[in-house]
Design brief:
It is globular, with a radius of gyration of 14 Å. The protein is built from no helices and eleven strands. The strands form two sheets. Strands 2, 4, 5, 6, 9, 10 and 11 form a seven-stranded mixed sheet that branches. Strands 1-3-8-7 form a four-stranded antiparallel sheet, with no helix packed on it. The chain is mainly β.
Length: about 120
C-alpha cells in the first residue's frame, strides 16, 4: 500500500502561481509513473499531467505552457508548478501513482483544493 499526501493548494488570484507537492510512502518510488488529476464541481476527474519513471511528461492541452510536472526520486515526491492560473483551474487536485509493471498497484491521494478567484 502506498500513501500519497498532497500539499500546496490554496486560494490564489487569476494570473498567480501555486506549487503542489505529493509525497509518496514507498521505497520504490522510481517504479511508479506519477500524475496529477483534477475534478471541478459537477465535472468528471480529468488528467492534468503525468511523468514517467524516466522523466517523460504529458500535459492536458488546457495547461500546456502554464503547468510543469516534475519529480524528485530522492525525496519520493512529485510536484506540479502552476503558473498563470485561470478561474477554470479551480478544482480539487489529486496525485496518482501507478506501478509500471503491476497495473493493479494504482494509488490516489486525498486531494488538495485549488481555488482561483479575484
Amino acid at each position: 500500500q502506498v500513501q500519497l499526501v498532497e500539499s500546496g493548494g490554496g486560494l490564489v488570484q487569476p494570473g498567480g502561481s501555486l506549487r503542489l507537492s505529493c509525497a509518496a510512502s514507498t521505497s520504490i518510488f522510481n517504479m511508479y509513473s506519477m500524475g496529477w488529476y483534477r475534478q471541478a464541481p459537477g465535472k468528471q476527474r480529468e488528467l492534468v499531467a503525468t511523468i514517467t519513471t524516466g522523466g517523460r511528461t504529458n500535459y492536458a492541452d488546457s495547461v500546456k505552457g502554464r503547468f510543469t510536472i516534475s519529480r524528485d526520486n530522492a525525496k519520493n515526491t512529485v510536484y506540479l508548478q502552476m503558473n498563470s492560473l485561470k478561474l477554470e483551474d479551480t478544482a480539487v487536485y489529486y496525485c496518482n501513482a501507478r506501478h509500471i509493471v503491476v497495473a493493479q498497484l494504482d494509488y490516489w491521494g486525498q486531494g488538495t483544493q485549488v481555488t482561483v478567484s479575484s
